[in-house]
Amino acid sequence: MRTDVAIIGAGPAGLLLAHLLAQDGIESIVVEARTKEYVAARIRAGILESASVDLLRSAGLGAGIEAEGDEHRGIYLQWPHERHHLDFVDLVGRSVWVYGQTQVQADLAAASDAAGRAVYYGASDAALHDLDSDRPYVTFTDSSGAAQRIDALAVAGCDGSFGPSRAAMPADRRESWERIYPFSWLGILADVAPSTDELIYAWHPDGFALHSMRSASVSRLYLQVPNGTDVNDWPDDQIWDALATRLGHGQNGWTLNSGPITEKSVLPMRSFVQSPMRYGRLFLAGDAAHTVPPTGAKGLNLAIADVALLAPALGALVHKNDAALAEAYSDTALRRVWRCEHFSWWMTSMLHTSGDPFDAQLQLSQLRWVTASAAGAAGLAENYAGLPIGF
Ligand code: FAD
Ligand code: DHB
């Protein structure tokens, strides 16, 4: 097969890139290891920054957000006996939206189907070749077992943390940074109305807890747990008891509604960046180049921001053989990536308990400052609601 851009991975980065390229008259073929059903069912992120919503809307993908998204002015930050609201709209003039990654993924898959775009689901053995030439190609085995080859002008590595693209860059041409955290999140999805109008991020001596949501009848909640936790060691009642304690059930008349848990899983946490995000005609976007711990709600938004930069860069390359934006892509994207890496690390460090009493006092002091000082609150709000795409 021959196309303009071969895209590896049909997550949010890959499918959004295919969509934006098509709007610019550029052809692509997407190769995805998992089945379409598996990709559609993955429960992941839940918050869109205002710049992500603007981009999806301007790309004609805003109808679902309009119909089912929930605009939030801010978040609650709390610690035992104190809950404070940070109003991002008042602080920095921007809001965020609760709109699940499954919904974003469904919107993208629907747009891809409607346009009849080529997506090879269930592909194995994807491999990247001749990336330092102007005729790179990708080989894979399709779901029927047939060997395939895509010749392209560029390859987009949108294959997440475990795909082949990252490692396709020669080892002596890349650098990476990593931090593994000593805790994980146990996440649940429950058929119960949220007990809060906006998200609650809670510091507690037993560990962090987060109350998020997906709709008026579905709640999404997380608990800090030790690494290596087996989800089967946490019966549903114990999860609800821990959430009630950490989120402050009974304090100032607030109650946590519980209900049937429909999904539960443990998510390890790490920070990772690989640089540069480009090698020859290979461009990395989203989790293929970087990972953040989920506390800042940045993973999905970073994937969208990368693709918003990459699509015009590939457009100039394909249409005009102009490589200026392509050459600037990695540096431009990494500026925002490192800002989000710092914010995600900072939120994670402020809210997760380590058992060290000195650390706990520093965290509480930081939380008091962030909620009591307009300057502190504005800094958190500016980062959480998201900086402009080109920041
Ligand atoms: P992905 O969504 O990972 O997509 C990559 C795609 O490439 C996948 O479909 C994968 O199957 C495919 N692929 C991989 N290998 C190959 C191969 N060899 N060949 C072909 N295709 C391949 N972020 C938050 O902000 N908040 C959260 O609560 C949150 N929760 C998360 C929970 C989990 C379990 C995970 C894994 C991530 C979570 N994230 C969260 C992060 C967020 O979901 C990601 O940042 C986002 O999905 C990045 O999109 P992406 O398209 O770059 O990568
Ligand atoms: C959700 C996940 C996050 O990591 C976060 O910071 C906020 C919300 C969620 O899944 O809803």
Short description:
By secondary structure, this protein is α+β, with helices and mostly antiparallel strands. 38% of the residues lie in helices and 27% in strands.
Write a structural description.
With 391 residues, this protein is α+β, with helices and mostly antiparallel strands. The protein is 38% helix and 27% strand. It is built from 12 helices and 20 strands. It has helices spanning 12-23, 36-41, 50-58, 63-68, 88-92, 101-115, 165-168, 236-247, 299-320, 324-351, 357-372, 374-385, and strands at residues 5-8, 28-31, 47-49, 70-72, 74-79, 82-87, 96-98, 118-120, 124-129, 137-141, 147-151, 154-157, 175-190, 200-202, 209-213, 219-226, 261-275, 278-279, 282-284, 290-291. The strands form 4 sheets. The protein has an 8-stranded mixed beta sheet. Strands 8-2-1-12-19-18 form a 6-stranded mixed beta sheet. A hairpin with a 5-residue loop joins strand 15 and strand 16. Helix 11 (357-372) packs across helix 12. It starts with a strand and ends in a 6-residue tail after the last helix. The model has no long low-confidence stretch (mean pLDDT 97). It binds flavin-adenine dinucleotide (FAD) and 3,4-dihydroxybenzoic acid. Residues 8-14, 31-34, 39, 44-45, 101, 123, 126, 158-160, 162-164, 267, 286-288, 294, 297-300, 303 line the site of flavin-adenine dinucleotide (FAD).
